[in-house]
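Input:
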Amino acid sequence: DQQVKQNSPSLSVQEGRISILNCDYTNSMFDYFLWYKKYPAEGPTFLISISSIKDKNEDGRFTVFLNKSAKHLSLHIVPSQPGDSAVYFCAAKGANAGGTSYGKLTFGQGTILTVHP
Amino acid sequence: KAGVTQTPRYLIKTRGQQVTLSCSPISGHRSVSWYQQTPGQGLQFLFEYFSETQRNKGNFPGRFSGRQFSNSRSEMNVSTLELGDSALYLCASSLLGVETQYFGPGTRLLVL
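Output:
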């Protein structure tokens, strides 16, 4: 039962253009969402987060949008740079029914972003 | 501020052995979570510790255990290693366990 899904395994974008990475979730108890960037054999690097009380959060070239009714979030990178090429994971935090959410992030399977010069 | 550190970075073990991995959180962070990353299962939550107490646990067998010390440093232990335990083990820290987590570089474990 995959509660967080990234349906696009890969995305290829030209330098300078916009990259849009998508993520869907099924658990309505999730209340905090994060995006991480990861290189092989390294730990994930935090990029940006959004609380469920907001629908948008910006940080420099990165913007995250949250559509709670559709249970969908997206990460926009503008403009895309070759150094952005990596695997991007979305993650969600929140209590499952009868459970605790302390310290637990549920991750999607990741999307490989390639930005071509 | 120094980031999350994990030791060792690489480890090779044989089936049946046990292994202990260490994690030092960001200074001031009291919550430490552990994750396993494999190609087939992705990033899976193992457990979380706060103030030396396990507060949350994922769906892993009892061979996987952990602890946290009074300085917030944490260790995880895997006993009776199986081939399927080969993975990247990541630890992450946060202030209280309810906000953004910051990850260490991971320990790559290979079980032969």
